[in-house]
Amino acid sequence: MKQETFTVPPHGDIDHGWALLSVCWAFIACALISTILRVWIRVRITRNLGSDDVFMMLAMVTTTIGGGLIIAEAVNGLGRHEYYLKANQRRLFQLIGWADWIQTFLTLMLTKISICLFLLRIVDSKRVKRGMYTLIGFTVLFTAISVFLFLGVCRPLKAYWDVGVNGACLSNHQVKSVVLAQGILSVVTDLVLAAMPAIFLRNLQINMRTKVGLCMLMGLGVITAVCCTVRTALSGALTNPDLTWAVTANVAWRLPEVNIGIVCANAPVMRPLYLFFRGRLQSGRAASTGVSKEKLWPSSSKQVPVEYREDHKSRWNNQSESGDTSVSLEMGLPVHGQEEQNGPVSPLKNKPFFRFENGPS
Fold first, then answer.
1. CA separation for the pair 298, 211 (Å, rounded)
2. Eight-class DSSP state of 275
3. Which of helix, strand or coil describes residue 310?
4. What single string gives the DSSP state of each residue in 90-115?
5. What's the gap between Cα 14 and its chain centre?
6. Residue-wise pLDDT tens for the chain (361 aa)?
7. Are the C-beta atoms of residues 1 and 163 closer than 8 Å to each other?
């Protein structure tokens, strides 16, 4: 149980909470804009909204709830020394911080599941698919364990934030160990997901510049891994008696970890938007350029927004997942209607695809 004994801070009553709050909502705004664009692209341009988009929207909902929790934490002392807080503020901060950690675990899980489901839409390899489903199961498992440990941090649970309630609780060091374990596993899954695109894009028959660009775009999860590494390294603040002050840096890195993670997960889906606007800019000279606006955004809502190869039409009619048939537009791959040359076979070879007039330049 936490002891309410505090020493006088040497620098007085400094408050970093509101500065942290502005950073928080700046990150959430970026995540929200990218998620709105993702959904708009999938609904209006590619017209293949899928389960990965649903999980990303759920992640956006939970991170927005997290933003509300950060506001409540700032009101109750986040970024200030506990010496200057009232007893009620300390209790509320402990309660809200406990809920915020659970929110963080859930948001990270939903984001990773969304990334896995997105990758499942663009791969044919059964081995890769098994790996993705295994990674989803692993992510759900270690998130569930982390959440259950936090739900059982004290018996009764109220004893975790109310020093007036007697109960059996995990020590601060044990809570820190839970957060450390979750952070390490999160870093590992981030790096695995960042490396996966390079593995299954390596044999695509596209120019090296495009291939490298796609790998970098889909490998932005490395940024999240870096933020998570720093956040995990700062987990020692959870054992500091002056928690509201000491945990500020940890929260400051937790915010980009969650919200930049959402932005990075949405980034690969943005390529069709780039192609659309490029097509609109080039619509006046479509005969000599690549993508036309009409190809990417047909004027009639009744039109199917793609032209499929004749030898794949029967296969498309039997498809149950519409997302699987939109790979070329989703990724902006310059796949043409000509027969493939001798060489490595693209994993997208047997999928219907979007045609470009002369291929993206």
1. 28
2. H
3. helix
4. HHHHHHHHHHHHHHHHHHHHHHHHHH
5. 33
6. 445 667 788 878 888 888 898 999 999 999 999 999 999 989 988 888 899 999 999 999 999 999 999 999 999 999 999 889 998 999 999 999 999 999 999 999 999 999 999 888 877 778 888 888 999 999 999 999 999 999 999 999 999 888 888 889 888 889 999 999 999 999 999 998 888 877 777 766 666 776 777 777 777 888 889 999 999 999 888 888 889 999 999 999 999 999 999 999 998 888 777 777 766 434 334 333 444 444 444 433 344 444 444 444 444 334 333 333 334 445 544 443 433 444 433 333 443 333 333 444 3
7. yes
- The owner of tokens 């901060």 is 93
Rounded distance, CA 15 to CA 360, Å?
Answer: 52
Q: Which two tokens stand for residue 359?
A: 């291929």
Alpha-carbon torsion angle 340, 345, 350, 356, nearest 10: -50
Query: Per this entry, what is the length of the chain?
Result: 361
Residues in CB range of 11: below 8 A, 6 or more apart: none
Q: Do 80 and 13 meet the contact criterion of CB atoms below 8 Å apart?
A: yes
